[in-house]
Amino acid sequence: SQTIHQWPATLVQPVGSPLSLECTVEGTSNPNLYWYRQAAGRGLQLLFYSVGIGQISSEVPQNLSASRPQDRQFILSSKKLLLSDSGFYLCAWGDRVGTEAFFGQGTRLTVV
Amino acid sequence: GESVGLHLPTLSVQEGDNSIINCAYSNSASDYFIWYKQESGKGPQFIIDIRSNMDKRQGQRVTVLLNKTVKHLSLQIAATQPGDSAVYFCAETSSGSARQLTFGSGTQLTVLP
Q1: Residue of A108, A109, A104 whose CA lies nearest to A6
Q2: pLDDT digit of tens for each residue in chain A (112 aa)?
């Protein structure tokens, strides 16, 4: 069966520090991969999606970047965090044939 | 469509009553719809889906209704239980969207004892 791992679960980082959140998927090949952000009490905002290694599409201009160095690994990064980067970050994967997305447990990022 | 900047609408129901959560979409090309449940501090979990060639689909205690004429989707939960308290999101996608999901704003369901 397929599983998705996202870590860390919580993170407190000072303004101006770098960020690296990692997501890996097991049990599937060539998944579509997604990074979402969710502010408290709000909906889900798609940040990045990837249909293959090295292929990243950005949905919104921001202080973040994403990379996909391996087929089942998706990384969300920032060189210098801003206060406004605080939020709940969710990684998800989707099968190329089916269309539902399966989510990780999320990372609660607080920038202080 | 995506409404990430809005506060979530809320719905409160008595335990044992039926719940109906509604969602409107705007893309007439959308052909696949999903309902997710998100508990506090967790990632969304798949509940039920429906394709555009159907207008109703039933699961365990849940039913999804699709009205393509008015671009409306609803989730009905029978005999609502305290464990059903969560935020519910609808999502839609179309074959021309690289299968990206577009999420609705979500509804906070609270089950009252």
Answers
A1: A104
A2: 789 999 999 999 999 999 999 999 999 889 999 999 988 777 788 899 898 999 998 877 778 999 999 999 999 999 999 999 999 999 999 886 556 789 999 999 999 9
Cα–Cα nearest to A19, from A71, A83, A70, A73? A83
Q: Which residues of B touch A110 (CB under 8 A)?
A: none
Give chain B positions within 8 Å (CB) of A106: 41-43
pLDDT digit string, tens, across residues A21-52 = 999 999 988 999 999 998 877 778 889 989 89
What are the DSSP E strand ranges found in chain B? 10-14, 19-24, 32-38, 45-51, 56-58, 62-67, 72-77, 86-93, 102-103, 107-112
Choose from A100, A105, A108, A109 for mutation: most chain B CBs within 10 A. A100
Nearest residue in chain A measured CA to CA from B46: A102
For residues B19 and B109, the answer to whether their CB atoms sit within 8 Å is yes
pLDDT tens digits, one per residue of B8-62: 789 999 999 999 999 998 888 888 999 999 998 899 999 999 999 999 999 999 9
Q: Are A30 and A71 in contact (CB under 8 A)?
A: yes
Is A2:A27 a contact under the CB 8 Å cutoff?
yes
Torsion of CA A80, A49, A108, A39, to 10 degrees: 90
Place of tokens 């509604």: B22
